[in-house]
Design a protein that fits this description.
Beta-Lactamase; single chain; 11 helices; 391 residues; disordered N terminus; alpha+beta; Heat Shock Protein 90
Length: 391
């Protein structure tokens, strides 16, 4: 083939390549049409818009047509790489599949470990109802957050179990001592010894019942039947007096002082109980011949009453749990002194009911400082309290 022919062939190939490239460029520059959004009938949209529950509307194939923001926050729906919403919970997918095939209605509790409530580090628990809409061949999922109810129920079960366990110990001891005393009826010295131990267990049982009643009371609105202006100096003086004999018996000294003429609004009885529990706790966990300091002060619009001891201190792992019901840092020491493990929990609820809090600083071997913080009563302060029923 001569050079002229080769030139024509090359030109032809170049022309073809250019046409192909131009066509490809033009085709690529055209906008890709977005898939049409599913049409949802107006009556259905109106119903969905007024639902208080989270919802997900799906077609018969299980594709998400619409989902509420709550459904996303509960972890039931998520968007994929293509921004298409998809069901994200495996159990929910299985339920939707069953309803799609068999029709009818399904209801189930779901737990999502990947999402937690902002106020609690606990998984989200939701109740879902899934039903087929026969008129439109679509599937509707309704969901409600039951995390709080679930947590309250769990707390109730734990509380009942703990109460049963705590009651079992003194009741069992009383039964055993009574049987032993009966067998030792001819030995007056043994009878006196067993009777003394029975009195100890009886006092422990009585204290436990009283503190269970007290804890129930501070969690209810009836706690503030006597709400009024409270003189903090009087609360401190009474709480110290209540524990003076106990401290003296351990060779301890309670010193009180600090800012005077402080006032708060609330229940004088409840606040005295809270402070008394903090002082008693300091006595329980401190060695003999040590000092306990009780000092009120004003700080940033709050009245702070601190109870400082020179006791054993609290480890970091125990620090997170000391306000739980029946929790004891040193179980042997607490039982030996008749402690119930409810005192600090009662303090926590009383502080919360007064719009305040109780905090703790501690170092093992160096003692602890518990601080009860209550809003100070100012001239323009409201003379009522938000009642926190507690969980």
């Amino acid at each position: 083939m001569n050079s002229v022919a080769l030139l024509f062939v090359a030109a032809a190939c170049g022309l073809v390549a250019g046409v192909v490239a131009t066509y490809a460029a033009l085709r690529g520059s055209r906008p890709v049409p977005e898939p049409a959004k599913p049409v949802i009938p107006e009556p259905t949209s109106e119903v969905l818009s007024i639902l208080s529950s989270a919802y997900v509307l799906l077609d018969s194939s299980g594709d998400v047509l619409r989902a509420s923001p709550l459904a996303y926050s509960y972890g039931l729906v998520r968007t994929t790489g293509g921004d298409y919403p998809r069901l994200a919970h495996r159990d929910l997918i299985d339920i939707v599949t069953q309803v799609s095939r068999q029709g009818g209605f399904r209801e189930q509790m779901l737990t999502n470990e990947k999402t937690t409530r902002s106020d609690q580090n606990t998984p989200t628990v939701v109740s879902v109802r899934v039903g087929a809409l026969s008129s439109s061949r679509r599937i509707l999922v309704l969901a409600d957050d039951l995390s709080k109810q679930s947590r309250v129920e769990e707390t109730r079960r734990d509380f009942v179990a703990n109460v049963s366990h705590e009651l079992k110990t003194p009741v069992g001891a009383l039964t055993l001592l009574a049987e032993t005393m009966e067998d030792a009826a001819d030995d007056p010295e043994a009878v006196r010894r067993f009777a003394s131990r029975m009195q100890t267990e009886s006092r422990r049982l009585s204290l436990l019942v009283q503190e269970i009643i007290e804890l129930s009371r501070v969690q209810g609105a009836q706690s503030f039947a006597d709400a009024s202006t409270v003189d903090v100096d009087s609360v401190v003086a009474e709480a110290v007096a209540l524990n003076q004999n106990l401290a003296s018996g351990h060779g301890m000294t309670i010193q009180s002082g600090g800012t005077q003429n402080l006032e708060v609004f609330g229940s004088s009885t409840m606040l005295t109980t809270a402070l008394s529990n903090l002082i008693m706790n300091a006595i329980t966990y401190s060695p003999p011949n040590t000092l306990i300091g009780v000092s009120p002060r004003r700080h940033n619009g709050m009245v702070e009453i601190s109870v400082k001891d020179e006791g054993i201190g609290i480890s970091p792992e125990n620090m997170e749990r000391i306000f739980e019901r029946f929790y004891r840092v040193d179980k042997a020491r607490s039982r030996a002194t008749g402690g119930t493990g409810l005192g600090l929990s009662i303090v926590k609820h009383i502080a919360s009911n007064h719009g305040g809090e109780v905090t703790v600083w501690s170092k093992e071997g160096s003692g602890s400082t518990f601080t009860l913080r209550i809003p100070e009563l100012a001239d323009d302060s409201p003379r009522d309290l938000p009642i926190h029923t507690g969980e």
